[in-house]
Amino acid sequence: METRSSTTQEFELCPKFEKTFEILGQKWNGLIIETLLSEGPQRFKNLAHTVARCSDRVLVERLKTLEKEGLIERVTHSNSSLIEYQVTKRGEALRPVMDSVHAFADCWY
C-alpha cells in the first residue's frame, strides 16, 4: 500500500488586509463611510439619523476610530459651533471598494 505525503501550506492573510477588514468590518463603520462618501460632510445629528439603529454612544466611538485611522476628519468651522465629519483623501480611496460592495449587493441580495 502506497502512502502519499501531503504538504500542508499554512495560509496567512496579509496584515494590511487584516487591518483594513478589522476597520471596515466593525459594525456601522461601512455605513458611516458610505454616508460621507455619498452625501458629503455631515453633522453628527445627520449621521445619527442616517445610521438610525446605531446608538449615539456607539456612533461617537466609531467616528473616533475612523478619525484615528485617518479615514474621516472632524471639521470645526471658525466663528461657529458647527462641527462636521468628512472623508479624508485616505477615506476617499475607499470609494471603489464601496462601489464594488454596492455591485455585489445588487447582484446577490
TrEMBL record:
State the source organism's domain of life: Bacteria
Q: Name one Pfam family in it.
A: HxlR
Q: Which UniProt keywords apply?
A: DNA-binding, Transcription, Transcription regulation
| Claim: Hydrolase is one of the keywords in the record | no
Sample GO molecular function, one term: DNA binding
Q: Where is the HTH hxlR-type domain?
A: 14-109
Q: Where is the signal peptide?
A: none
Family annotation (PANTHER family): HTH-TYPE TRANSCRIPTIONAL REGULATOR YODB, TRANSCRIPTIONAL REGULATOR, MARR FAMILY
* Name assigned to this protein: Transcriptional regulator, HxlR family
Species in which this protein is naturally found? Pediococcus claussenii (strain ATCC BAA-344 / DSM 14800 / JCM 18046 / KCTC 3811 / LMG 21948 / P06)
